[in-house]
Amino acid sequence: MVEKSQYTNILKLVFKIVFSTAAVYYIVSHLDVKQVGNAIKEMNPAYIVYALVLYTISQIGSSFRLNHLFKAIDLNLRVWPNIKLYWLGMFYNFFLPGGVGGDGYKIFYLRKYFKAPVKKLLGAVFADRLSGLSIIVIYLLGLAYYIEYDLPYQGWVFLLIPLVSGGYYLFLWIFNRALTKAYWPVSLWSIVVQGLQMVAVICLLKGMGGQIKGHWDDYMFLFFLSTIASAIPITLGGIGARELVFMKGASLLGVNIEQAVAISLLFYLCTLVSALPGVYYAVRTNRIFGNMNLEYDKHINT
After folding, report:
1. Cα angle for residues 101, 104, 109 (degrees, 5° grid)
2. What residues does each domain of the chain span?
């Protein structure tokens, strides 16, 4: 007999498939697919490689960021096992888009090997996600001043940056005060991670040559906005959500829609390829931790 939780996961997966399919259909029916293909064909492939390398480095940086939060809850996970675990989570996010997701699998294996409290693991992983989101919002607030679109109080939105940063610290203080000691290194890593991804997108834009001249800030604004949209768990690995934001946003900001969607697709390709090393660790999970399964218990007996 199928449990209620299994029904829920199945329904979530079906919803994601339907939503992603509908989004892709809408996008394809409202733009010139041939022009999108031409924009990709005319790309200098070297810049795609640069973007892929930068994105991969950003994900390694994300693993360092998460490890600071693990250390704050006394989970002393060494650097290389932490990177491998992060890659495993990336793989699950892309290729097994069920109800658990990559973060859920990371928590499962850390609980299994280290007997770490689930509540603390959940808090650390969620704080990691929220840190990335807060820095993305900060980048958006900074870019909003420069985009060619009439936003309310556009010249003053940057004043919200300290509120966003302070709000993240307040969350850590309320949710688990132990995590506040990781606030500065986690925030700095988030700046680096999102900065590297921004440079990766700039490489893709550069690969298109002079076609995007004068609209760099618009494209970067759309990129960060689409990153938030793709993180909402209503699609299969973000398929459709990122492209939909680029398409609609490009129309509002007056930039070439087909080129914007091409950038979105190429960035998605980079994220997909970057997640592929996780295939190995999904098959050989025992290669992630080795003989480290008692390390957490030396620090916390809960």
Report:
1. 130
2. 40-289
